[in-house]
Amino acid sequence: MVDLTRRFDVLVIGGGNAALCAAISARRAGASVLVLEGAPKFYRGGNTRHTRNMRCAHDAATEILTGPYTEEEFWQDLLLVTGGQTDEELARFMIHESKDILNWIVEQGVRWQPSLGGTLSLGRTNSFFLGGGRAMLNALYRTAEELGVDILYDAEVIDLKIEDGMFLSAQLKQPVGGRTEVRASTLVAAAGGFEANIEWLKQYWGEAADNFLIRGTPYNRGAILKMLLAKGVQEIGDPTQCHAVAIDARAPKFDGGIITRHDSVVFGIVVNKHAERFYDEGEDIWPKRYAIWGRLVAAQPDQIAYIIFDSTVVTSFMPTLFPPIAGATIAELAGKLELDAAALEQTITGFNAAVQPGTFDHTILDDCRTEGITPAKTHWARRIETPPYLAYPVRPGITFTYLGTRVNRQSRMLMKDGKSSANMFAAGEIMAGNVLGKGYAAGIGMTIGSVFGRVAGREAAKNARN
Amino acid sequence: MHGTRILQEADRLMTVCNSCRYCEGLCAVFPAMEMRRAFSDGDLNYLANLCHACGACYTDCQFSPPHEFNVNVPKTLAVARAESYAAYAWPRAFAGAFARNGLFISLIAALSVAAFIFGFAAINDPGVLYGIHTGPGAFYKLMPHNAMALLFGAALLYAILALMMGVRAFWRAIGEPIGMKTDPKSLLQAMRDAGELRYLDGGGVGCFNEDDHPTDRRKLYHHFTFYGFALCFAATCVGTLYHYLLAREAPYAWWDLPVVLGTLGGIGLVVGPIGLLSEKWKRDPVLVDEQQMGMDTAFILMLFLTSISGLALLLWRESAAMGPLLALHLGVVFALFITMPYGKFVHGIYRFVALVRYARERQMMAE
């Protein structure tokens, strides 16, 4: 039984990678720590359950990484995906700290493995968790428990008492036991974004948000973020920005995770509900482009699109959870997809006619391209002509949102008046917008969580002692 | 479409897992799965027998129940594994022995013990059964050595034949075209993997049993059991060689090789089964195929009875209890031999064959 009458040194709200790294590092610094996870035990850990790797800088190859990935190269990659919309000082700090995280996380019981089969050529830049994100999370929870961190599940925080940027207490609501006031010297908010809150998404996206699928936890409803912003914490990040990919339209509304994704875009064409193409499917290699397709599909009518390819490429990408929809003719396929058959035939015929001869190689930017159609397909363009014709219906799959709380290098929250908070820290998705103004590169979410979680825990423990 | 409901479910899960692959570093099942995009009945039976039931993939899975994808690989493959034993049983008529296996094994065991007691008493005058016999050849006062060797040799040969026929059917079903002997490298690799239970460690942390804290207890108890069994078997072989090559008759002195091997093996075969049973009773029901409990328990108890009766015979071989104890020990061992192809014993055989197949596949991938 957790004694809720006592005053904790550090209160951590959330239960994912960032929260646990904060709890562990605070506890290792000698603080008493309480973790409040809003989800039931099985669903603990927010989106960390669905992750699989982390992007960390390193100067040399390791047992699991094929080569060096310097701080500078990491920074350039981040610059590229965000288009410069990042807090450079904070981002460079995170990249520097990520080097040590590679070892620190192992000391917390997490185990690495070489790059997964069928992943997006990340063997040099990203370290993979043995057994995936939930295994990583289980290890962190085991370590936290062994260190004497108190953890409560189904522990919903319904209110925060904050005065002049100083956290005083949290209102806790539990299914059994009702409401309790929890007091702590410092607060670490690591409660994720608001991607599972469709009503909130609608404020920015309108009715289109009804057609979004949420890839991760249904528990990230942004309640803590909302409270903090309402109580004077400075916000950061574009509220309409999020990490969104194209996932199978047949996926569940929430928590479908990694397995609903599609890697087949570069091998075919993508059409909307009018059977029209709308973007260059071969613009760049898939790892650099997979994260833009969620937004592209979100911009199409009814937020639906169809990846269309033929039977020559079925083994070129990872096997999928949902089977492709097949038709012996384009017209039959169109019928099954409820698309206009004539329109789809016209699109495919036009595309096939535009395909130029070339040498196909999906591992490089090859010379198989189209000419004379808009949008062009600039690489890996091959005629779609070998039945059965196949298709995957896709919708936007939201991973996490970027609106968050502004922090400094101590992971300390900044208030609207520019002052730093006396005792409030933030880590993980809830402050990812500091680093990610837009765009995404695989594994950065976990880097943000581990690095700032560790910093926040350490600083909160120090803060509580003073 | 698959032949059975459980294979249908195994196919569904392998389709889910193959689109995820997070578990590929945990054991051999997932890398073997990744070599395929579709799964035949044989493929699924191969994967089921490759699974060591360490439970790590269940604990690590973001889609395990209560998630709607309801992914429970250890339990599904456990059921499929048990059903595969019956599917490949030889002769086909005995496939039914795998259903209600606990009852079947106990009946055979009870009957054969009774037969030995009755046999000893009927062949000799009852005084012999409860007499005190010491010195070389003491056991053969109750049963001539040649009769004993013939009876047990025949039982063992039958077991080996039945097992080989089962393995042959399995080998064909999993699509292995060529004989094992063509590839000693894979055979050696599989021996190493089986010998150290390489895949019963959750990818390095240990086995998940009663909760989400992994331990190496199951591996340890299994080692006690397996190597205890091997030592006991070695003791029997050495004893037979002593008898025929050196003309030295049992019982042997306590320091003599057959007795030393048998005693060490017997101790392993007491500690191991007790440990395995206690782990089994603690195991999280969500990982367990409850239909199999009878079969597992029966086999573990048979091993335990073998060692306990053997050790008791060693302790009281110079008393009036020797006759009944010998009958008990021989009865249990005889039952163990003839039921080997129709009980939990086969798990080791099929798993070994699956490991050979895996080693070969890995090699072919590398080439």
Question: What is the structure about, briefly put?
Answer:
Chain A has 466 residues and is an alpha/beta fold. Chain A has helices at residues 17-28, 71-82, 88-107, 132-147, 198-205, 223-230, 286-289, 293-298, 330-337, 341-354, 444-465, and strands at residues 7-13, 33-36, 53-55, 112-113, 126-129, 150-152, 156-163, 166-174, 178-189, 213-214, 235-236, 242-248, 269-272, 305-310, 325-327, 389-401, 404-405, 412-414, 420-426. Chain A contains eleven helices and 19 strands.
Descriptive account of the structure:
Chain B: This is Tricarballylate utilization 4Fe-4S protein TcuB. Chain B: Keywords: Membrane, Transmembrane, Transmembrane helix. By secondary structure, chain A is of the alpha/beta class. Chain A is built from eleven helices and 19 strands. In chain A, strands 1, 2, 6, 7, 8, 9, 18 and 19 form an eight-stranded mixed sheet that branches. In chain A, strands 10, 12, 13, 14, 15 and 16 form a six-stranded mixed sheet that branches. The longest helix of chain A has 22 residues. The mean pLDDT of chain A is 95. Chain B is an all-alpha fold and 367 residues long. Chain B is built from 14 helices and no strands. In chain B, helix 6 packs parallel to helix 12, helix 6 crosses helix 13 and helix 8 packs across helix 14. Chain B starts with a helix and ends with a helix. At the A-B interface, helix 4 of A face helix 1 and helix 4 of B.
How are the SSEs placed, and which strands pair?
The complex is a heterodimer of chains A (466) and B (367).
Chain A: E1 7-13, H1 17-28, E2 33-36, E3 53-55, H2 71-82, H3 88-107, E4 112-113, E5 126-129, H4 132-147, E6 150-152, E7 156-163, E8 166-174, E9 178-189, H5 198-205, E10 213-214, H6 223-230, E11 235-236, E12 242-248, E13 269-272, H7 286-289, H8 293-298, E14 305-310, E15 325-327, H9 330-337, H10 341-354, E16 389-401, E17 404-405, E18 412-414, E19 420-426, H11 444-465
Parallel strand pairs in A: 1-2, 1-9, 2-6, 9-19, 10-16
Antiparallel strand pairs in A: 3-5, 4-5, 7-8, 8-9, 11-17, 12-16, 13-14, 14-16, 15-16, 18-19
Chain B: H1 5-18, H2 29-34, H3 41-50, H4 56-60, H5 73-87, H6 101-123, H7 126-129, H8 145-173, H9 184-195, H10 217-245, H11 257-282, H12 293-315, H13 322-339, H14 346-366
Helix pairs in contact in B: 1-5, 3-5, 3-14, 6-12, 6-13, 8-13, 8-14, 9-14, 10-11, 11-12, 12-13
Keywords (chain B): Membrane, Transmembrane, Transmembrane helix
InterPro entries (chain B): Citrate_utilization_prot_B, NarG-like_sf
Transmembrane segments (chain B): 102-123, 147-171, 224-245, 257-277, 298-316, 322-342
